[in-house]
Write a structure and sequence with these properties.
single chain; mainly alpha; elongated
């Protein structure tokens, strides 16, 4: 599938990589690009969905919509694995990208810290700190994995504007878990005996 030519404003896509051996400018640029790739509007979600068919864009769009809460809950649960089989492969790639992005962001947060020189926050230290910060999360990994994820993300940011997008509101994951909890409650509760409002008997 050919991806649309339009990319979000300010993207670093198709720009020649800058040498970073002893230059922090590319680190700042990579961190800024990750921060910029946030799904803040339905238009952002629509663009990502049309370009990359990322099911995560659909989930964030549902959470941003004016749909009733109960309908949001049902759609979020239906779209998120393991319920959604049709998107299994797409979810696998999308979740892998978010894991690498989380590692790269924490690594960059250390390496671009204003006190990095005074505190001795070099490359090896950044690996270790990112490892500690993420060890209780889905992005946990070894210090070496932190560096590899940064390198992977840094390269990909240069040429693919449709990867590593995330919701701007960090409460989205909590919203997803709340939806799962509510739908599970509905599934496990006894079936209501009271007829719905406006119910009419059709079958005789």
């Amino acid at each position: 599938m050919k991806r649309p030519a339009r990319v979000p404003d300010g993207s670093t896509a198709n720009k020649r990589p800058t040498a970073w051996q002893r230059d922090d400018a590319p680190l700042d640029a990579a961190r800024a690009e990750l921060l910029r790739r946030q799904l803040t509007t339905l238009e952002d979600c629509h663009a990502l969905w049309e370009a990359a068919l990322d099911p995560f864009a659909l989930c964030v769009a549902v959470s941003l919509s004016d749909l009733p809460r109960w309908l949001q809950d049902g759609l979020l649960v239906a779209l998120i694995p393991p319920t959604s089989n049709i998107f299994t492969k797409a979810w696998r790639g999308s979740n892998r990208d978010r894991m690498h992005a989380a590692r790269a962001f924490e690594f960059l947060r250390v390496r671009t810290h204003p006190a990095r020189d005074r505190e001795g926050l070099d490359w090896d230290t950044a690996d270790k700190i990112a490892h500690v910060l993420l060890r209780e999360t889905d992005a946990a990994g070894t210090p070496a994995a932190m560096r590899k994820s940064y390198q992977r993300v840094s390269r990909a940011l240069q040429h693919d504007p449709w990867r590593f997008w995330a919701p701007a509101d960090h409460a989205f994951n909590g919203r997803r878990l709340a939806a799962l909890k509510e739908v599970r409650r509905l599934i496990e509760r006894p079936r209501p005996k009271k007829k719905p409002a406006g119910h009419r008997r059709v079958l005789r």
